[in-house]
Amino acid sequence: MEYAEMSISINTEQSARLRTSEAPNESVQTTEQSATFENQLRAFLSPSIGSTINEEELFAALLQERIQSSEGSEIAQFFGERFDSHKAALTRADGYINVEEAANRALADLVTEGHITQEEHDTLYQQSFMAAQLDDNHSALFDGRGEGEDQTIATGDLESALARAQAAIEALERGELPTGQTSSPETPSDSSNSGSVVTPKGNEMDGPDEFVFKPHSDSDGKLVVILPKFMTGGVEDLLLKDKDGNILERGRGTGVANGNREHFRFDRPGEQYPEGLSVEVRLTSGEVKSYEIPNPSERYD
Fold first, then answer.
1. What is the pLDDT of residues 54-97, one digit of tens each?
2. C-alpha to C-alpha distance for 249 and 267, rounded to whole angstroms
3. Is there a single domain that holds both residue 148 and residue 219?
């Protein structure tokens, strides 16, 4: 996924929390810190990783290490549990998992549930994104899928990647950019609402067999949103927002059905959400499409 360039904005207070204070025997302490950093990263990596690692895998492990260093083991464990849950939800039929998206969703959950602030979220994201770079493209994270001249592959030797990540984190904690990087990534924002807005006429949205907001699903009686067929395979995220633009809940992708359309489920029936709701769909193309739901106790399609 690519992000626009912006000037580096690592929060100094949060960075200070991630920086270990000086000790008299600096060389010994540095060695111990490096060993601890590497051991923590290894602990957060999937057991299936062999001698190579890709940028998305490294990014996810760095996020958990950064969270543990700054917020403690309990919140890091919470992140890990949410990360595993999102990976399961994002697993496709062919076995592919968008690891970067699962990690971003888990990090956003920390903000939604009050474990960290948005400012802390941004610092954790920026540091992990920049330290996970293994190729010359510093504006994106890539996985290891593909072959030949595929430009969306970014992998590296595990040992070298861990050492490189360590050096990058140390540079960021000093307020410097990692070697070879000239800007920091734009942090994904939950306040984005650019793109088209669909306003219902009565209870009709965009025609039959397209978008559906169903307050009570047939399976569990809770809200389910079914997206248009043209979006299948291209959905990055789906959010419920209140009339002020605040995120209420993130949809859980549960597969494709009913005319090859993606389904997203929620924790409560429709009537338990506030009036003036909107369903925000973020596509991998960068487009954002919002559906206005005046009365969430009613069905819109």
1. 999 999 999 999 999 999 999 999 999 999 999 999 888 888 88
2. 8
3. no
